[in-house]
Amino acid sequence: MEIYLVGGAVRDTLLKIPVVERDWVVVGSTPQEMLKNGFQQVGRDFPVFLHPNNHEEYALARVDRKYGKRHIDFNCISKDISLEEDLQRRDLTINAIARDKYGNFIDPYNGINDIRLCKLRHVSNAFCEDPLRVLRVARFAARFFHLGFSVDSKTLLLMKLMCCELKWISPERVWKETEQALVTKNPHVFFQVLRDCGALEILFPEIHSLFSIPTLTSLQKEINVGVHTLAVMSIVSKLSCDAVVRFSALCHDFGKIFTSKKFWPNHFDHEVLGQRVIEKFCTRLRIPNIFKNFAKITAKYHDFLYTVNRVTSEKLIQFFNDIDIWHHKKKLEKLIVVSEANLLGNIGCNDFYKEKIKFLRKAYEIANLITAKEIIQEGFTGKNISNVLNARRQDVLGKWINIYNIKN
């Protein structure tokens, strides 16, 4: 029995970045021997075992044989499989490097050289057997973009040829890869690579459509909404690590898909239309409600903050109620982040916006001075509580806005 460290742990060690988890491959053993040595088998389809002490994954060397259309339709063969054969089934050369117990690297597919070249290159033509790898490569491109990595041209060509198979990937798996891409340093690269290989149109037609929609060139250098959206994602990823915030930045202009073409490049009512698109988008990909709900709020209000100091106290209270700021103050700060990124993606300047943020935060503080507790103590019950609460908050906010306008 020979045991080797493989995959991401070896790659990340060579990249000199933190190793999150370690995977091992076992050559020359059997399931029976692994169980006899105290390992616990995980699942029935693949010969993967958990170490009895540290619970790290140890997999018997194997090759996979595709038998169906779906990305999970593989037969696993683990008898008499060499380390080189096991490494050959992996997606990218940088993930097909092993290290033995003496610290020696086994690199039959030149992954170490590709790390030096910063190239994401497929190991073999077996890459084409799993359409999920299109998403995985795009995710790795986003993850390692800050290190200078890019997709090899031949690998990108294979990804283009695989697009017809993408329909067999389950919505849950598409979302899982997307969610992992959202927390990388450059999530916009994930969607750009998918666009480059033709996968964006198939997996995310809503995002693909944005690249054919004009935007206000008098305010923006970008020539379409898609380019603007990726720019906003790039900016927001520097302002927030929250995947929910980044996802909402991705969806904020979805409503422009259905605005009237006769008014382009203006997009009237795109805030309302966007909420409907997001609802369908998230339903199709089975995206969790925490992402969907905040994305809908962002679609509705991402432009609201630009004119917030000119709206009535009634509109402000309606806004605060819609985002439920009274119970979730962080929602306001998250919305501010997306709105700021959108502004920077439009005109590249946010000096005048800082005053509006101060205004909004102060407006919340003023309105929040009126609480339901004191109204209940006065004897109000049922719906009267919320009615009186809203009225008093509007009143105190209106008086403060009048004073603010006089001073400014």
Short description, anyone?
By secondary structure, the protein is α+β, with helices and mostly antiparallel strands. It contains 19 helices and 11 strands. Helix content is 52%, strand content 9%.
Commentary on this structure:
This protein is an alpha+beta fold and 408 residues long. It has 19 helices and 11 strands. The protein has helices spanning 8-15, 31-36, 83-88, 111-117, 132-143, 153-161, 171-182, 187-197, 199-203, 205-210, 225-239, 243-251, 270-285, 289-301, 313-322, 329-347, 351-367, 372-377, 383-407; strands at 2-6, 23-27, 40-42, 48-50, 57-60, 63-66, 74-77, 98-99, 105-106, 119-120, 150-151. The chain has a 7-stranded mixed sheet. Strands 6-7 form a two-stranded antiparallel ribbon. It has a two-stranded parallel sheet with strand order 10-11. Helix 13 runs antiparallel to helix 14. Strand 10, helix 5 (132-143) and strand 11 form a beta-alpha-beta unit. The chain has a domain at 1-123: Beta Polymerase, domain 2 (2-Layer Sandwich). It starts with a strand and ends with a helix. It is 52% helix and 9% strand. The model has no long low-confidence stretch (mean pLDDT 92). The relative contact order is 0.06.
List the helices and strands and how they pair.
Layout: E1 2-6, H1 8-15, E2 23-27, H2 31-36, E3 40-42, E4 48-50, E5 57-60, E6 63-66, E7 74-77, H3 83-88, E8 98-99, E9 105-106, H4 111-117, E10 119-120, H5 132-143, E11 150-151, H6 153-161, H7 171-182, H8 187-197, H9 199-203, H10 205-210, H11 225-239, H12 243-251, H13 270-285, H14 289-301, H15 313-322, H16 329-347, H17 351-367, H18 372-377, H19 383-407
Parallel strand pairs: 2-5, 10-11
Antiparallel strand pairs: 1-2, 1-8, 3-4, 4-5, 6-7, 8-9
Helix pairs in contact: 5-7, 5-8, 8-11, 11-12, 11-16, 12-14, 12-16, 13-14, 14-16, 15-19
Catalytic activity: a tRNA with a 3' CCA end + 2 CTP + ATP = a tRNA with a 3' CCACCA end + 3 diphosphate; a tRNA precursor + 2 CTP + ATP = a tRNA with a 3' CCA end + 3 diphosphate
Protein name: CCA-adding enzyme
GO molecular function, one term: magnesium ion binding
